[in-house]
């Protein structure tokens, strides 16, 4: 509770009051017998340090507590979902959306949600306890962590499940709305609590195949098109850059055989950087492969390779100086007391850097994460 109060004080009480008013405006009074409220807390504490680093500006070691708050309401065909993240470095409304179940297998959502064209984000959201690893793959990073693809969209999304007679199923998703802007050295999503204009549009789609409608195993395709407007006055690197047209097409897989699980995603990027007097084309490929193996009921060892191709010649990635172009990571996770875990990762990391040469360093991370109740 002390940490909770400190975070509120650090990031301003006016913002928190605005959030409460917005939530109250959307959440109905639960009078129906079949209505259901769920309230989950995802606290975590991360530590980070580097050793044998080649770049002095990679970042200092830190201890970062965070608390992710997730609320959902289910009242017949009506849904509400809100998610807010507090940490020692940020406080942000991550999701706020209202939904309507249009049929047995179809949901319509309106508000701020995670992009349909990002696999990892839609599976794990912001709850650190939900994902095995501490770090996210580089192409799945959030906008404020130099993620190359928009993570948060404000608009409309549609989800549909197509079951088949042989018990297999197809999951279909489509969304469109306001895309992030490029400000300074990262993408900035549309902020519902501090709205502003000049955001372009984003269109995203996903199709996934499941061997069983109740199975977590899935493989699929992802596609997105983003019109990213640019604040050209926020950085010298953005001078005369008006907007970025981004097309992404990817394939993903999440499959488990007994104790072994594979998570993989490969994305092809095509960017068009439109300057005042010229347009610059940019094409590269990025992806990851993560393997997880349960050695017992409570222990999981895992590793991941993040890799990119043609990133050195990418003018778009040069604008994302903290983007991780390569990472070789190993880790171990211990789940104890049912809803708590301790995780350690070590990695050899290559960051994009400000110029054509990368920042190389080795890192170690520790994390405690949990979920309540």
Name of the top-level CATH class: Mainly Beta
Mean pLDDT metric:
88
Number of domains: 1
User: What is the 3D form?
Assistant: globular
**Quantity of strands, as a count:** 18
The low-confidence parts are: 1-18, 24-31
Strand arrangement, largest sheet? 1-2-3-4-5-6-7-10-11-12-13-14-15-16-17-18
Distance between the termini: 15 Å
| Share of residues in helices | under 10%
Tally of separate helices? 4
Per CATH, the architecture is Beta Barrel
Return the CATH topology.
Porin
Main traits of this protein?
two-stranded antiparallel ribbon, Porin, 373 residues, single chain, 4 helices, 18 strands, mainly beta, disordered N terminus
What is this structure's SSE topology?
Blueprint: H1 2-11, H2 13-26, E1 36-51, E2 62-75, E3 78-87, E4 91-103, E5 106-114, H3 119-124, E6 152-163, E7 169-178, E8 181-183, E9 186-188, E10 201-210, E11 218-229, E12 241-257, E13 260-275, E14 279-294, E15 299-309, H4 315-318, E16 324-336, E17 340-351, E18 359-370
Antiparallel strand pairs: 1-2, 1-18, 2-3, 3-4, 4-5, 5-6, 6-7, 7-10, 8-9, 10-11, 11-12, 12-13, 13-14, 14-15, 15-16, 16-17, 17-18
